[in-house]
Design goal:
heterodimer; A: alpha/beta; Fumarate Reductase Iron-sulfur Protein, Chain B, domain 2; Rossmann fold; 4 domains; 4-stranded parallel β-sheet; 21 helices; 8% strand; B: alpha/beta; FAD/NAD(P)-binding domain; 2 domains; 5-stranded parallel β-sheet
């Protein structure tokens, strides 16, 4: 339950912005600055602006909402300044706008998903209609050109309970899977693949009884208190799992990054005891193979695929693209093209918004061009929202790394 | 994860070593905490620009012989410098970076504020003069971009005029660049380069430049084009009616970003692993050898190699940290050449050469550092982290970065052959 005494506005203000040397290297790598001169850029919006905002919050500038929270500025920074976190916290603390219907709709992946999966396929037909897209565009501010993700007929959890749960007891080794909202409500395929792959590798899969949305969409849409409630619930579950000596694996890079880093640096929570208990499935498998605790199962002899790996922004920030790409490279029949690490422009719910759509497409253009030139069978990425943006903007088939493993082993 | 060599630091020095080793088929990983000092490179590289007396150096290779024994060039053997310098030039060519210049004879580069300085190599796009300060043209037109303030044209004009070159300054405007001007603080070289990456934007620019030029023999523009390669600069050159060259700008420098990205791309194309955002925090050392290192973002991950290179730079890159109790090398706490007495760190006159500039990791024979006097035999320190040189006073920073890295790489290749 949410801790009533926790106030993220005063927590964790460790003066990290003082580390900034004003070298401006971050501005070179900002995907927003590259396409929109009205964004003040990470240096100005982050450490420079923070100095003023601490004196007087009136210095808060609404253009900060153009930030994608991609953290590419932080990856570039030679001096460990958490520029993205400074901007994200400033928005949550100072934005005068109360979240409206759109923000609540986009952020409430869990609540909306629960209802939408029950009403799918009616919902899917409805959201693909031109008239409802027009309605969404005009009334809600969700851009009509965007293909809103469809909802699954059956949630991942329902599928798991019906089709996978009975077999999981037969494994000696166990691992816990944090599936995230997108796998549960929109695209269960990576989750289903994960269960099959882990079973092939000799692990039984358990789900978390009380899994909640990681909270990232609430942070992005101006609802920190809701994000805090979810973070407390999840941290509580993760602690119980850790106490049982089990590890938690994920397929979503953003959920992983949120639990590991945003809980601490944006929400100001102490997650030290659970931070390293949550790992991406690709990293988990890579490390077990490396430590020779696992062997790859035989691969279908006719398996052959040419794929391009796209490094999602939060994968870049985690520094874990190495694991996914090098796990894929170990699979016989996989030919992997490593794309330059570039932002796709989607940034969770950012690209949906009418006022952002054009900017979002412009940001992604260099990546889309690279994908078209790569001449591959499919694009592979660890992020569900990059998946959605790339599929819509390039028409390419997009898969999760675990789905490639599943295809190879089946 | 096991590699032949792990390099800590992803700037000019780290990438030079990484590329050289990867070209020989080694399995190499570069771990970089963030982006590097290369982003400030204003198009030129220096081997040795001034001697200890502060006099301009014409022939850097000859002058290196008179450097003190503590200088990194002496530690890698001045007799080796010529061949390392050749290797450095070849490395740039292999990476698709066009440079001009000779290790046997410096040339003159123009700094962003119009100071003339000796240099070893300069990117092919830039205007240079010979050591007698003669430019190849008698009259030039500086075409600056309206609203761009990181190139102080009055200083540059006066620099040219002092060298007997007639100089006229104009400001050019195009609709696409005017759009960028809506935010004055973001009118940076790298943001302009994004706009000028499209041919249509360069077409507009070339029309304006051609309209402005009178009888000048050459056109000079700020180096605000070509963030990934110089093909767009070549395109503009074909579109204008006079020879066109670039002038260095204040950072962040477009050509610095280009150097970084081309070197990294070339390294990756050789099969190298480049991990950005991986800050190395500790090393596991036993009986004078590193067994593995660990990065902050890779918990429970041992990164192992036969050989290790420390290319973490000086104070800016956190290769060295000044604490209240002394200067330290933060990863392994290597022995450093820096006095404990803080009084000795700085000279009172700000314009004098500052002692702290020469602080760095202590190395014995060759480039092996030590801990409490005990040499780490499978570790080489290269580039700005080394003690014994003052890059501002001597203008030797790129030379130290590249040549020490090439020395370490050469020794490592030899070690691996003998293994």
């Amino acid at each position: 339950m949410a801790n009533k005494t926790h106030n993220f506005f005063i927590s964790n203000n460790d003066g990290n912005f003082e580390q900034c040397l004003k070298c401006s290297i971050c501005t070179v790598y900002c995907p927003v600055s590259a396409v929109d001169p009205l964004f003040p850029g990470p240096k100005q919006a982050g450490p420079d602006g923070e100095r003023y905002r601490l004196k007087n919050p009136d210095f808060y500038d609404e253009s900060l909402k153009l930030c994608l929270n991609c953290k590419r500025c932080e990856v570039a920074c030679p001096h460990d300044v958490r520029i993205g976190d400074i901007i994200q916290r400033a928005r949550l603390q100072h934005s005068p706008h109360k979240p409206g219907i759109r923000a609540r709709l986009l952020a409430s992946t869990d609540l909306v998903g629960r209802w939408a999966t029950r009403l799918s396929p009616a919902i899917n037909t409805a959201i693909s209609l031109k008239s409802s897209k027009e309605f969404g565009h005009q009334m809600l501010g969700i851009h009509k050109h965007y293909d809103f993700p469809t909802y699954a007929r059956q949630t991942f959890v329902k599928w798991f309970e019906k089709n996978a749960l009975p077999q999981q007891g037969g494994f000696e080794k166990k691992v816990v899977y944090f599936h995230g909202c997108h796998v549960n409500y929109n695209d269960p395929a990576p989750g289903m693949a994960l269960v099959r792959v882990m079973n092939k590798l000799g692990y039984g899969v358990e789900l978390i009884d009380d899994e909640k949305c990681c909270g990232n969409p609430f942070m992005a849409n101006g609802m920190p208190q809701r994000a805090l409630q979810l973070a407390f619930r999840n941290m509580n579950s993760l602690r119980q799992i850790a106490n049982k000596g089990l590890e938690v694996i994920t397929t979503s890079s953003t959920c992983t990054f949120t639990i590991r880093d945003e809980y601490k640096f944006v929400l100001g929570l102490d997650n030290a005891d659970i931070r390293d208990k949550v790992s991406l499935a690709t990293r988990f498998i890579f490390k077990k193979l490396e430590d020779e605790e696992l062997e790859l199962p035989p691969v279908r002899p006719d398996f052959k695929i040419r794929i391009a790996y796209h490094t999602a922004c939060h994968m870049e920030k985690l520094g874990w693209a190495f694991y996914s790409a090098n796990l894929l490279r170990q699979i016989p029949g996989v030919e992997l093209v490593m794309l330059d690490s570039l932002c796709c422009g989607m940034a969770g719910t950012y690209g949906f918004k009418t006022e952002n759509f054009e900017r979002s497409q412009k940001i992604g253009q260099p990546l889309f061009n690279a994908i078209k030139e790569a001449n591959v069978d499919a694009v592979v990425t660890d992020c569900e929202m990059c998946h959605s943006q790339i599929a819509m903007s390039t028409g390419m088939k997009v898969l999760h790394p675990i789905e490639i493993l599943d295809m190879a082993f089946s | 994860m096991k590699f032949s060599t792990i390099i800590i630091g992803g700037g000019l020095s780290g990438l030079t070593a990484g590329i050289t080793l990867a070209e020989q088929g080694q399995r190499v990983a570069v771990l970089a905490a963030g982006q590097s000092r290369l982003h400030f490179t204003s198009g030129s590289m220096e081997l040795l620009g001034y001697n200890a007396k502060g006099e301009q150096v014409d022939c850097p290779l000859d002058e290196c012989r008179s450097l003190p024994a503590s200088h990194p060039y002496q530690k890698i053997g001045v007799e080796n410098l010529a061949s390392y310098a050749q290797m450095a030039k070849k490395l740039f060519a292999n990476a698709g970076i066009e440079v001009v210049g000779y290790e046997t004879m410096n040339h003159i580069r123009l700094s962003p504020i119009g100071v003339l300085k000796p240099a070893w190599l300069t990117l092919g796009d830039y205007i240079t003069a010979n050591m007698a300060r003669q430019f190849p043209f008698q009259s030039v037109l500086i075409a600056n971009i309206a609203g761009y303030i990181d190139m102080p044209t009055p200083f540059l004009k006066s620099a040219f005029e002092k060298c007997g070159v007639k100089c006229r300054v104009v400001e050019v405007k195009t609709p696409m660049l005017e759009n960028l001007r809506r935010s004055q603080t973001e009118m940076r070289a790298t943001n302009i380069a994004r706009v000028l990456s499209e041919q249509s934007a360069v077409d507009q620019l070339s029309v304006e430049i051609n309209r402005s030029v009178n009888r000048e023999q050459a056109i000079l523009i700020p180096a605000v084009m070509g963030i990934t390669d110089n093909s767009i600069v070549q395109y503009l050159r074909r579109m204008v009616t006079r020879p066109l060259f670039c002038i260095a700008t204040l950072p962040p420098a477009v050509t610095g970003v280009r150097l970084q990205s081309r070197l990294r791309k070339y390294f990756l194309s050789l099969g190298g692993t480049y991990m950005l955002g991986s800050t190395v925090r500790e090393a596991n050392i036993s009986s004078g050898k590193i067994l593995s290192v660990a990065a902050a973002n890779l918990p429970d991950q041992k990164l192992k190699a036969n050989n290790y290179i420390l290319a973490t730079g000086s104070f800016m890159g956190n290769g060295l940290i000044a604490t209240q109790s002394g200067v330290i090398e933060p990863i392994m706490n290597l022995d450093v050449d820096a006095p404990l007495d803080r009084e000795l760190w700085t000279a009172e006159n700000l314009n004098e050469s500052q002692p702290y500039m020469e602080f760095g990791v202590k190395t014995a024979l060759g480039l092996h550092p030590s801990i409490d006097g005990k040499t780490i035999t499978n570790l080489w320190a290269v580039g700005a982290v080394l003690s014994g040189h003052n890059p501002i006073k001597l203008a030797d920073s790129s030379g130290v970065d590249m040549l020490t890295a090439l020395h370490a790489a050469t020794e490592i290749i030899q070690t691996e052959k003998n293994r």
